[in-house]
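#structure-requests
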Amino acid sequence: MAMVGSYGPPEAPHMSRTLPLQIHGVSFSKLFKHLFQTVDSIGANTEILNKFSMDDSFYRLCVGLLHPEAVFRPATENPAPFVRRELVGLCEFLRAHLNEPVSLSQMERMSGLSARVLQSSFQNSFGLSPKAWLKKQRLHAARAVLQKPSHKLKLTTLAYDFCFPSPSDFSRQYYLEFGELPSETLAKGRNAFSN
């Protein structure tokens, strides 16, 4: 596979060259393949494509091929901005869809990161696995709902709305996170509203 690039001022004749697809041990053919698979899996949903900055990812890969020195820094520098940017897009999407089940393989496809990179990125950024981070986000969102007074709110429905396998699992996880049961948080919210 070859890529054509040009250098010099615009009036200069175009010079073509063949670029290696493996630079500093990084396989750009795999990166492009993964990027295109991600775009294909998202389809024509431009909102999601924009959230994950797919055009920016493509641009960064092209820069990496044309000017590796701009992408590959010495080992003392942190090369994580590319990964963090992908992680930010994924986290924003997950926070906006906390009531939808999502698997680790779906997270990989959405972020364009491998399972290993995804796991280590979450661990380095949040000290949690992707699934543990998502569960924590769901618990905090559920707590926000419980703190708003509503006499129609049912804990069973809330547990399933935030993708917990059962109300008892939701209660157990909630207690571990906040030190009180969901029913206690709900009662406090209702008492605050009535006072």
